[in-house]
Amino acid sequence: MELFALSDVPEVREGDDLAAIVEDRVDLRADDVLCVASTVVSKADGRTVNLDDVTAGDRARAIAERLEAITGEAKDPRFAQVVLEESNDLVMEAPFILSETRFGHITVNAGIDRSNVPEADLLLLPEDPTGSAERLHEELGVPVVVTDTCGRPFRHGQRGVAIGWAGMPASRDWRGETDRDGRELGVTVESVVDELAAASNLLAGEGDGGTPFVVVREFDFGDHGGSDNLFREYDDDLIRQALQAWEFPG
Amino acid sequence: MELFALSDVPEVREGDDLAAIVEDRVDLRADDVLCVASTVVSKADGRTVNLDDVTAGDRARAIAERLEAITGEAKDPRFAQVVLEESNDLVMEAPFILSETRFGHITVNAGIDRSNVPEADLLLLPEDPTGSAERLHEELGVPVVVTDTCGRPFRHGQRGVAIGWAGMPASRDWRGETDRDGRELGVTVESVVDELAAASNLLAGEGDGGTPFVVVREFDFGDHGGSDNLFREYDDDLIRQALQAWEFPG
Ligand SMILES: Nc1nc2c(ncn2[C@@H]2O[C@H](COP(=O)(O)OP(=O)(O)O)[C@@H](O)[C@H]2O)c(=O)[nH]1
Ligand SMILES: Nc1nc2c(ncn2[C@@H]2O[C@H](COP(=O)(O)OP(=O)(O)O)[C@@H](O)[C@H]2O)c(=O)[nH]1
Ligand SMILES: [Mn+2]
Ligand SMILES: [Mn+2]
Ligand SMILES: [Mn+2]
Ligand SMILES: [Mn+2]
Q: What angle do CA A87, A93, A96 make, to 5 degrees?
């Protein structure tokens, strides 16, 4: 399996044709998977926001005040407003906002970025990353994974995850298969789109690399079942239930 | 960047020399990273347990009874006993046991496996995966990442993560670097060992593949700071605090 980033990718602007940018830079093969940083999907879709265009409501103002009191740092209530608008539901509101995005992904500040956004204050995540992946998949003919970099419980730091995918299942389903000794497997559902996103992030990086597109060549999904069930629903997510029941002591 | 699994790896037994198994199968290069599934590290270290040798204490019996009542499935109190012995601290005890292993990793059932373990009932995680990685790194001369497959909050399924590493920092520290427009970065600490573990899991798989060793060739860490701070401490982990404060309603 080989991974490489596409080079000489321009600054992406609203309306840009991402499939054409890719096709101009690589002859994709049938066994390739294309990983795309959500940043450029959002830019192509015009998902920028300027804070001057935002009016904070009561809830956003209350959240920003509380975060200001906790952290001792100025918090813009208009930013909290945008996070609320991008969220189905809040999982935690202090000491940082953890929420479920419209498409079911749980992340800090609804995944809104301030880096690598030249022409506006904020860049929202794509409205429907799987829809975006589907369009790119149709145009390019290979599986597409839309990635973001985000944190996770229990561990420091961040890593690449999939937020949308098309042309392949999200997970390899190992149920019904056996281990080396014919016993049932403990691990049954392997989130390969997350593993692909993590791998591609090793090349995309977080800074000024200019490498939002990474091709994974000769990844072998293998002869397994597949599943597209990546984001847990509330009823099925005890950790989220525990967090929503909890109140930050401060 | 290229990844390949070593082939013709034998069944690993207590006392086996993993470095020799690797060296017999590949000429490692200076820019390689070796990812090793923890299963074979544990096997070489003899970390197997037979339930007949375990006596469950009161706490393990209480936990197993509760889990039996909740799930309607028989639960062996001796298994709960082993999980307790492998744990520094429990994060949740129902409806499944989530705990911190001795070396700081939070995972279900202390990461104890029943798959790919021919000669015993259970396989524990390595006692000190970073120590194991250090020994392999000294013998092989390349960075080593010890991996496991485990679940995570908010998402279905499991994926590869690092539980030990040596010869390279756990994370790329992007602090002080800037984005394409000279602005400060939002993502500052990228857990590259987790990203490498996820990538290698795409080739190692969960079943009878027999491929616990994956070489990552030409991964470029780049000119960044590094950090080895991967597992959050209790005081620094709000999600864990919230979970420990929570009581499963059932
Ligand atoms: N060429 C190019 N690279 C970009 C652009 N926007 C972001 N990048 C690069 O894409 C990669 C990922 O950027 P990042 O901000 O971490 O995106 P995210 O993980 O999707 O939030 C980095 O190498 C950035 O330099 C763009 O418009 N053009
Ligand atoms: N050759 C060989 N492969 C093994 C052995 N034990 C496990 N594996 C393989 O190692 C890979 C990872 O196994 P898994 O049970 O998922 O390990 P874990 O992720 O570390 O818990 C799979 O390809 C297994 O078939 C062994 O003793 N010898
Ligand atoms: Mn982002
Ligand atoms: Mn990123
Ligand atoms: Mn395991
Ligand atoms: Mn595994």
A: 100
Q: Which of A179, A183, A214, A230 to mutate to test the interface with B (most CBs of B within 10 A)?
A: A179
CA dihedral of residues B195, B201, B202, B203 (deg, nearest 10): 130
Ligand lying nearest the CA atom of residue B183? 1
Residue where one domain finishes, among candidates A95, A125, A155: A125
Residue of A nearest to B240 (CA): A154
Residues with Cβ within 8 Å of residue B233, at least 6 apart in sequence: B104
In the reported structure, the alpha carbon of residue A50 is separated from the centroid of ligand 4 by a whole-number distance in angstroms of: 21
- The parent domain of residue A234 ranges over 1-47+128-250
pLDDT by residue (tens digit) across A21-32? Answer: 999 999 999 999
* Nearest-by-Cβ selection for A154 from B159, B206, B237: B237
In a domain, B6, yes or no: no
* ipTM exceeds 0.90: yes
Identify whether residues A35 and A159 lie together within a single domain: yes
Residues B65-114 pLDDT 10s: 999 999 999 999 999 999 999 999 999 999 999 999 999 999 999 999 98
